[in-house]
Amino acid sequence: MRLSGRVVAALATLALLMAGCSVNVYEAGSGTGGGGGGEGAAAQEENTGQVDIAGAASGEEGVAIQAVIDQGVNDAQDEFVATYTGSDSFEQNVVIQIEGGTPPDIGFYPQPGAVVEQAQQGNLVSLEDLGFDIAALEEQFGSYLLSLGEVDGQHYGFPDTINNKSAIWYNPKAFDAAGYEIPETWDELIALSDQIVADGKNPWCIGTGSEAATGWPATDWMEDIVLRTGGTEVYDGWVDHSVPFASPEITTAAETFGQIIFTPDYVFGGPENISGTDFRDAPDPMFQDDPPCYMHRQATFIVAFFPEGLTPVEDYNFFPFPPIDGQDGVLMAGGLAAVFKNRPEIKDFLELYSQEETQCLYGSVGATTTISANRNVGPDCYDDPLIASAVEPLVEALQNDVARFDASDLMPPAVGSGEFWNGMNNYTNNGPDNLENVLTSIDAAWPASSSDGASE
After folding, report:
1. What separation in angstroms does the CA of 281 have from each of 79, 209, 210, 404?
2. Would you tell me the crossing angle of helices 248-261 and 420-430 to the nearest 10 degrees?
3. What CATH architecture does domain 167-328+411-452 belong to?
């Protein structure tokens, strides 16, 4: 798919929808929601025999999720049937459903910031109100992932799946034929890019098109760079806006990203085509017999969109996003399940779905390439050797406190899945001279009610 000028209008609409969503579905009389914890919590309802789940993963990934649910949940009991529905426009659709008082039973959110916002508005049921033992969940998932959905001491985000986003993909056969070596530092990465240009090719295959979510792959570039140029302290301050977008630290990161997208001949098709190239199609040129571009930065899930018939390791591989000035880290993403209704079968679903045996299915069912958030699910569960190899560095980075969740997914939706996406499109489409306006516009979108240590 190729997107054009309509992207800006779509993103503006999305930002307005998300910024304006303040409906409490429980107070609206739907009988569905809760504002868990305390007097606003919804009373538990009776088992309906059906659990409806909605999320952003679609296509083969969505089919794989349903296969895992069928094998690990539906086939394991006869009290209810769980059904997953995926949509590329989930972020928009769920807002409309919430405003109409008809949310799904469970939302598989790719943005923890959206879970926090819905919890603050009283639309969710807390895990405590569902009857979960938080200490037991921390044994499964660790305290960091559970903390991403915490509001006022209550937990609203049930960890789902994660992925390693600090990966740069390449075609080993094409690299070997050209005599290219894997770079281990940012300077070596730039030197390799310059060599590829000198050889008459483009080093980078980049596309950020994603329907109404166009621009998010560019935010991932920014996040990997901020983690390496500013470290975890700056990264965490950026997430809570105590370090604004227009700060010197984030400006430096954006300029570093600009070194990739605006250096002549670095990007196949030029920077003006980045937002018009669907992210699922962007890596395809790497696999041509005479590839015009050689590297593609994307999370581990991208292999689900590679051309059919390719063999891991032999036809495609990845190397870690390199350190910058000696500073490293691992960017991660994933999902949090948010619960809109308090019924016994919903808790039963989450318990069955999250157990080790069910989560291990993600390593062998269909085309899914995500990693289980259950830290007891080891590399042996994953048939794809590259996905298995991505598990260990992610776990190690979590242990060393240098792994950080996707910043845009932690920010308020009006920013993280709104103006940040829009701003990155503006930056790639209009060039480096527009950077100051881009960053100040993103700062201006930050909701006044959010925790914000930055000067306004």
Report:
1. 41, 9, 10, 27
2. 50
3. 3-Layer(aba) Sandwich (3.40)
- Does the pLDDT of residue 46 top 90, yes or no? no
C-alpha 390/C-alpha 164 separation (Å) is: 6
Convert 382-393 to b/e letters by CB count within 10 Å (16 or more is b).
Answer: bebebbbbbbee
**Residue 15 in this model has a pLDDT that exceeds 70:** no
Q: What is the largest CA-CA distance in the chain?
A: 67
Residue type at position 392: E
Q: What confidence tens digit (pLDDT) does each residue in 149-198 have?
A: 999 999 999 998 888 999 999 999 999 999 999 999 999 999 999 999 99
Q: Which CATH class is domain 50-163+333-404?
A: alpha beta
CB–CB of 57/69 below 8 Å? no
Q: Which amino acid is at 453?
A: G
CATH 3.40.190.10-classified regions of the chain: 50-163+333-404, 167-328+411-452
Residues 346 and 85: their CA atoms lie apart, in Å, by 16
What pLDDT does 249 receive?
Answer: 98
CB contact at 8 A, 390 and 168: no
Quote the CA–CA distance of 105 and 305 in Å, as a whole number. 29
